[in-house]
Amino acid sequence: MKFEYWVIAKTKEKYFISAEAEFLKRIKRYTKLTYKVFNDVKGHGNDPAVIKTKEAEMILSQLDPQDYLILLDERGKQYTSVEFSEKINRFHISSYKRVIFLTGGAYGFHQSVYDQSKEMLSLSKMTFSHQMIRTFFLEQMYRAFTILNGEKYHNE
């Protein structure tokens, strides 16, 4: 089983790039996490419908039928850090080839992406920039592995 984290568009702020790199490095101690960045869709006059359609084409062309796709979406289910670590642990013993977490673009997801997803995960009811969500999500992945390994990173 392999974890992947897919995102739309590159991170621009240096401090977020640094934070992402740090958590990706830490996560490598526990599992291989593929971090895939899809190019930003440009040249469509900022038409949200067209942009979401083009992003969906990129995403869906990379999915296999046996993948377990989880969308990071504000309407998704929220977990405590411990509950999320238990979910990660269940994926380790599942029969899925890949578990893919996906952060969409500025306009969210096209319906075809929702249709292919198995579930949605929310990190908060608040709205954050896509760059912030990446860092928050990677930190939670790292936290999940430290919880599963009984390390002192997480306090309860």
Automatic annotation (TrEMBL):
It catalyses: pseudouridine(1915) in 23S rRNA + S-adenosyl-L-methionine = N(3)-methylpseudouridine(1915) in 23S rRNA + S-adenosyl-L-homocysteine + H(+). Keywords: Cytoplasm, Methyltransferase, rRNA processing, S-adenosyl-L-methionine, Transferase. CDD domains: RlmH-like (cd18081). GO terms for molecular function: rRNA (pseudouridine-N3-)-methyltransferase activity. One of its GO terms (cellular component) is cytoplasm. It comes from the Bacteria. S-adenosyl-L-methionine binds at L72, G104, L123, S124, K125, M126, T127, F128. Its main location: cytoplasm. Pfam families: SPOUT_MTase. InterPro entries: Alpha/beta_knot_MTases, RlmH-like, tRNA_m1G_MTases_N. The keyword Methyltransferase applies. It is found in: Cytoplasm. Its EC number is 2.1.1.177. Specifically methylates the pseudouridine at position 1915 (m3Psi1915) in 23S rRNA. Belongs to the RNA methyltransferase RlmH family. PANTHER family: METHYLTRANSFERASE (PTHR33603), RIBOSOMAL RNA LARGE SUBUNIT METHYLTRANSFERASE H (PTHR33603:SF1). Homodimer. This is Ribosomal RNA large subunit methyltransferase H. It comes from Portibacter lacus. The lineage of its organism: Bacteria, Pseudomonadati, Bacteroidota, Saprospiria, Saprospirales. The gene is rlmH.
